[in-house]
Specification:
This protein has one helix and 27 strands. By secondary structure, it is mainly beta. It has a single domain, classed as Neuraminidase, CATH 2.120.10.30. β8 and β9 form a beta hairpin. The longest helix is centred in the first third of the chain and has 4 residues.
């Protein structure tokens, strides 16, 4: 979620991207689930027939049987900084239901809060849904938070893994080029910024650090870190069958990438952008860096929006393929063939033009949904939820 300009930075290719003959274009359709949303960012599926959608401006809206409720499940707008009506990356960005949500009614949000010392604070908090279907703002338990020097590159994704732990993405601190400290926040292991974290929220304390986190007990390293070297992992997800973690990593000037995130992995930023040197522009040290499974240049798009591996039944041809998009609208799937990943185009034959793809969701049957905004920020109520169909 950002606007980029090409700065003419010289780069070298570290390795050739994994490419093969493109698989066929898949022509699919969408079913409109709801409109009238203010900059939707993420969705969750609390019960059969119900969808929750987070609006960037702070509300969780409920959709039951296609009807958008006027009453918010929760309204955090009073807790957030004043958002720009034009381009804006802060706000209510992520939602995850506890794996035992049906029993404990707990869910988790990622949102921006005001700060007196920085641009804002990124907050991950737990809430409990009341019997009336509305969450009490007073039920908030802050899990963790981090000050952000700039308003962009917030990450903002929260998801539970098969292990029952909560995974959280933080961007690098914002601005251009991760100019934070000597090596940038992405490579600085004393900060959560530029990382994907993993914590255990099944405790009376805000959280515990899982004993098998990769850096537990190592000096001068935050033990919550699961993987590092990210610029802005805005959206990530787990394949519900394999458990693999796929992340869309938003690039800087020239390259967008998709990663499979592994425990303890270094994904390169700010040393690399995609498979290419960034800082330094040549001769960067790549030993130990995990390269993306796919990248694309900015002539094809400007900001990747990570999606999901399709595990539904409606679209058999899409089974087992990773579906993702660029914020500006192009959509693709990745298919693994041997050790390589092939990219195919997805054409949606009946979707309005000019929509920004701000997120994806997966329902309890494995079907994939997408949320869109026609603008670059929360300046309208013309956001949509679509279900991808054949």
């Amino acid at each position: 979620m950002k606007i980029l300009s090409l700065l003419g930075i010289s780069i070298i290719t570290l390795m050739q991207p994994v490419v093969a003959a493109e698989p066929p274009v898949l022509t699919l359709k969408v079913q409109k689930i709801s409109g009238g949303l203010m900059a939707p960012t993420a969705i969750a599926f609390p019960t059969a027939g119900e969808i929750w959608v987070t609006e960037q401006t702070g509300k969780i809206r409920s959709i039951k049987n296609g009807k958008l409720s006027e009453t918010a499940v929760l309204d955090l707008s009073s807790k957030m900084p004043k958002l720009n009506k034009g381009y804006e990356e802060r706000g209510l960005l992520g939602i995850a239901l506890h794996p035992r949500f049906k029993v404990n009614r707990k869910f988790y949000l990622f949102y921006s809060a005001p700060s007196t010392n920085a641009n804002h604070i990124d907050v991950v908090a737990e809430y409990t849904l009341g019997a009336s279907g509305v969450a009490d703002p007073g039920s908030e338990k802050i899990i963790l938070s981090a000050e952000k020097p700039d308003g962009n590159h917030n990450g903002g994704c929260v998801q539970f893994g098969k292990d029952g732990y909560l995974y959280i993405s933080f961007g690098d601190g914002g601005g251009q080029g991760d100019k934070h400290g000597e090596a940038g926040n992405g490579q600085n292991m004393t900060t959560w910024l530029g990382k994907i974290l993993r914590v255990d929220v099944n405790t009376e304390e805000p959280y515990k650090v899982p004993a098998d986190n990769p850096f537990v007990g190592q000096p001068n390293i935050k033990p919550e870190i699961f993987a590092y070297g990210f610029r802005n992992p805005y959206r990530f997800s787990f394949d519900r069958l394999s458990g693999q973690l796929f992340a869309g990593e938003v690039g800087q000037d020239l390259w967008e990438e998709v990663d499979i995130v592994k425990k303890g992995g270094n994904y390169g930023w700010r040393l690399t952008e995609g498979t290419h040197c960034y800082n330094p522009a040549t001769g960067c040290a790549i030993k130990g860096i995990i390269m993306p499974i796919m990248e694309y240049p900015h002539r094809e798009g400007v900001s990747v929006t990570g999606g999901y591996v399709y595990n539904g039944k409606i679209i058999p041809l899409l089974k087992g393929k990773y579906v993702y998009a660029d914020w500006t609208g192009p959509m693709w799937y990745l298919k693994k063939v041997g050790t390589a990943w092939q990219r195919g185009n997805i054409t949606l034959s009946n979707i309005p033009e000019g929509l920004k793809v701000t997120g994806f969701g997966e329902d309890n049957t494995g079907e994939i949904y997408m949320v869109t905004n026609p603008d670059t920020g929360p300046s309208n109520s013309n956001g949509f939820i679509f279900k991808i169909t054949k």
